[in-house]
User: What shape does this take?
Amino acid sequence: MNRLSTLLALLEKRTDAFLLFAIAKEYELLEQEDKAEVYYRQVLQSFPDYSGTYYHLGKLLERKNEMEEAIHIYQLGIQRIPPGNDLRELKEALAAVNDEDE
Assistant: This one.
């Protein structure tokens, strides 16, 4: 059984942020970006404090050339992530996308 199959089987028993995120990453590795996006968005909807998702979804959207949506996701992450978390990666990603738009 491959890793994705194992993760999807686990999802039938429980739902948590790490599991949904791991499934999204597996789909990304398989170059199935649309499926990866679905799972990243599920993480954001159910677990908005799961900070790494904003960065990875933003990067995926950049690869899909959906720059406005990537900017929105980075901004959303900066707003939603609880104080005390490191926002540097998100802020740098947002600045890079904004620089490309100019």
About this structure: The CA atoms of residues 7 and 13 lie 10 Å apart. The mean pLDDT is 93. Residues 3-101 form a domain with the Serine Threonine Protein Phosphatase 5, Tetratricopeptide repeat fold (CATH 1.25.40.10). The chain has six helices and no strands.
